[in-house]
Amino acid sequence: MDPEKVNYHYCDNLSTRPLPPGTRILVTGANGYIGHRLIPELVYRGYVVRCMFRKKRCPPILSHSNLEIVYADCLSKEELRPVLKGVHTAYYLIHSMRRKTKEFLEKDKQAAKNFKSVAEECGIQRIIYLGGLGEKNSNLSVHLRSRQEVGKILSKSRIPVVKLRAAIILGAGSASYELLKSMIEHNQRIPFLPKFNSRCQPVAIRDVIKYLVGMLETENLTTRIYHIGGKDILTYREIIQRFAKLLNKNVDFFDVSWIPLSVETLCRIYACWLHFFISIPVNICSLLLQGLVTDVICRDTAIRGILPFEPLDFKTSVTLALEKENQSRVFSHWTGVPPERMADLMPISEYEAREFLVDEYSIDIPAKPEKIFPVVTRIGGDHGWFHANFLWRLRGFLDRMVGGIGLQRGRRELEHLQVGDAIDFFRVEDMQPNRELLLRAEMISPGLSWLQFILEQKTHHCTRLTLRMHFIPNPFMGHLYWFSLSKFHAFIFRGLLRYFRKQSLILS
To answer: What residue ranges define each of the domains in the chain, with the CATH number in brackets?
Structure first.
């Protein structure tokens, strides 16, 4: 996808002028929500944009002559050095919200220290960091505290570090926006704590991007913090009420302060409840809710003197986001990866198992992968599914009953497969001979699912064959569907593995 074609032109009316054409800019967290919105703007303004991804399993969806794709983990200085070489300015857009609290705090700190150190070595001219607003007090959420700590670490660099602090970012696909919208759509009565009556200054995603680009193009900036926010300062109640009005929904609040539990625990419980109705992982949802106890407003307006444009108000920000959704023009999402291929979505499973459900079964076979893989690739079509065929046929029949393709499609050839081939209600998404076969399910179901076969040679004459069923559930019905079918997985898949073992030994 060409970034110039998905550019939303947020920065067309900026008062700044782009740096010389060909200036190399690094965007870390390139597959994230902010990164995906920022990169097209930078490309359109003539920059060479080096996009940094952490995992090769999460390939970029943008392609352009002015894009450089690199892979590095900020926890490794060795990986960072070639990435930062030749860079004019680096955007630091890395922050974890999916790991356990203690883990992500430490990982965030170490990543920032490594990045600062290598950036100094490579002589880059500026770091632009996007963090979170919040008062310096004991009520600061773990999420906000971590972001501020990262900013402090980066500021200790000899390189000028421009730190932008934002509150709730409003835009189609942002985590905060999705949480607010989902809370209103699925809950007529919303729990309320007196501590939640904090003030917030939500900012539109388009204004955030304008600030990020504008600070890149402003000369002679030194290390300091700049607060960025929207036009309106609202309480939690007011945000919910105004959002609900735009959705034509009625909401009520009920006080839960009488419950003898900490705010953190109550947020966790509510996040678990919301998890049955919305797709946002529990950890992320809980962290966002905890942030409601702290005022997040702009105490400093210095940036207005540098970039004197008028930020959008709350109503306009939400209205524009809703319009983008209605037009199906949401290019970036808070998950950071497009739900197109399992290989793209795999990183989610590393952090939030609740969102990416997996059933796994393995068997050791005294044969080489070359003898086993041809047996595996004969699956489906006229060959059938080798074990518990009646259950596969039942699932195909149910799929047909609801308008799906069932098992009627078969396969193109009985003995040969290639990427893109149909196998009954699956399709070959990836195939690495003697190593892996990945099938994506195309039956009608409340979620996305894949069937994966992995061959790993353990010894010279022994191979471990692993079968994994991956499932990304839709809220509530997806979990119910998985719970119902998972009871049959052990019977079906273990029997299938035993069949592969038997046939592989015959061929050997």
So the answer is: 24-332+339-349 (3.40.50.720), 356-507 (3.30.530.20)
